[in-house]
Amino acid sequence: MLAVEPSSAMRAVLLARVHDDPELRERVTVLAEDAAHASLPDGLRAMVAMNVLGHLPPAERRALWASASRRLAPGGALIVSVTPPFAPEQVPRTRMASAAVGALHYEGWATAEPSGEDEITWRMDYRVLRDGMPLSEVTVDYRWWVASENRLAEEAAEAGLDMRLVGKPDVGLHLLTRTGE
User: Fold this and answer.
1) What is the pTM (predicted TM-score) of this model?
2) 6, part of any domain
3) What band does 181 get if pLDDT is binned at 50, 70 and 90?
């Protein structure tokens, strides 16, 4: 089993989780590559790209579709999550995570502003509090490319992939298979 994670911080967390499970530790290889250009073998039965598409500019998404189309075995599938926003629009500040661990409380906040024709800039604020008083705060800004479900389906079709919604619509999971399979 292969996992691809270009972010060193996210890769460290992933590797720690894999390491904690002896079965996964023997089966999972984590590559320090991006989804669109990963050195994957041919004949894959499944590919999963969760919360990835917005990190890829349109040309990189097209590279991902083309790679999946080439690498999937007959009957294989790519599963992707498609999440809003689907157009460059403001996203109001929202708490996305809140958890107590020991004596500390951790919070994550997100907001976004339009920053281009096909993109927004997310601002993520991460806070650590003790007894309601901030101990630390880190802010991270990053670009996120937006696209409607129809646009994503059109891009995928150009690479020979059919895209269809699976499961509950509010989850945003889509299954991509080679055209005609």
Assistant:
1) 0.86
2) no
3) confident
